[in-house]
Every structure is written in structure tokens, then in C-alpha cells.
Recover the amino acids of this structure.
């Protein structure tokens, strides 16, 4: 398995552009990440600009995986949750460039997201993934537990409905004591 440099991303034109390219590629290849195909550059740029601004405000952490100078994967750790959920964070927008899939990028990103969550005393993680062509296998291998399925939850990027699978993971049982 290759080694990838994982780091928290800061807002910059180059980072925003690389994230836009990855999002457009992910959607074009059927990734269910809230957008429809074809995804315009402007829509992708608006999304990532807003997300990076939220990261700058501390509301989320956007992690990037680099292979050399190339951004090849990303995941977001959502931290801006209601006051009654200070112990929780949400995993969102997991994406890996098509050229780097099945090479350990997503695993490395999730491990770093978990490390950061624990450092911020966020010991319960939740996420959702599409029933069709989602990353359920990855999440289950990483110890996430399936809560259930919501049928017909969202449109697939190329049309048709898909359900969503809801997962959770306690990062440290000792945090509950």
C-alpha cells in the first residue's frame, strides 16, 4: 500500500481548483456526493469555496491526501453540530481520484479524521453512503456499524433513486466512562 501525505486543507485557489476537479470527476463516475451529472465548474467552485470558508472558521476540517504534489483524495469532518452533540462529528464528502482508488487513500484519510476527532474529544462519528455503488465495504472494514437503510433517499448522479446507509462508530469506549 502506498504512503500518502494527509493534511488539513486551507483555502487557496490551487486547492479549490483541485477539489473542484475531484468533485466533478467523482460525480461523472457515479459518486453520490449530493450533486448531479453533469456538474458545472461554477457549482463545484461555489461548493468548495463555501466549504473551505467554513473550515477557515473552524466549523469543519477538510483533509486532503497527496501523492507528491497531486491532491488525490479528500474527506470532511463536520464539527459544527448542535450544542447537545459536543461529543460527535460527521464524516462527509469522501472522494478519491479514479486513478488512485483501491490504493489505501480513503483508509488513510479516515484514520486521520478519526485521530483528529479524538483530539477534539469527538468520540462518536456518523456518516452515510449510497446503497448503490457507495463505500459501505470500506466503512465496515474500518469498524463502522450499520444502523439502517433509508430507501429512495436521493437521486444518483446519472438519474434514478438510491437508498442511503447510515453508519456510526465509537472511537473510544473509555470516553463513555
Amino acid at each position: 500500500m502506498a504512503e500518502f501525505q494527509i493534511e488539513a486543507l486551507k483555502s487557496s485557489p490551487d486547492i479549490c481548483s483541485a477539489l473542484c476537479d475531484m468533485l466533478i470527476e467523482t460525480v461523472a463516475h457515479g459518486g453520490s456526493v449530493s450533486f448531479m451529472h453533469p456538474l458545472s465548474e461554477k457549482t463545484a467552485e461555489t461548493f468548495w469555496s463555501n466549504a473551505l470558508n467554513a473550515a477557515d472558521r473552524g466549523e469543519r476540517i477538510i483533509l486532503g491526501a497527496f501523492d507528491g504534489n497531486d491532491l488525490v483524495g479528500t474527506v470532511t469532518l463536520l464539527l459544527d453540530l448542535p450544542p447537545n452533540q459536543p461529543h460527535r462529528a460527521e464524516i462527509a464528502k469522501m472522494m478519491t481520484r479514479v486513478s488512485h482508488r483501491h490504493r489505501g487513500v480513503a483508509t488513510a484519510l479516515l484514520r486521520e479524521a478519526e485521530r483528529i476527532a479524538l483530539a477534539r474529544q469527538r468520540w462518536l462519528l456518523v456518516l452515510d453512503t449510497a446503497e448503490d455503488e457507495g463505500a459501505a465495504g470500506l466503512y465496515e472494514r474500518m469498524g463502522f456499524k450499520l444502523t439502517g437503510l433509508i430507501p429512495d433517499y436521493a437521486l444518483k448522479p446519472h438519474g434514478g433513486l438510491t437508498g442511503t446507509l447510515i453508519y456510526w462508530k465509537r472511537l473510544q469506549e473509555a470516553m463513555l466512562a
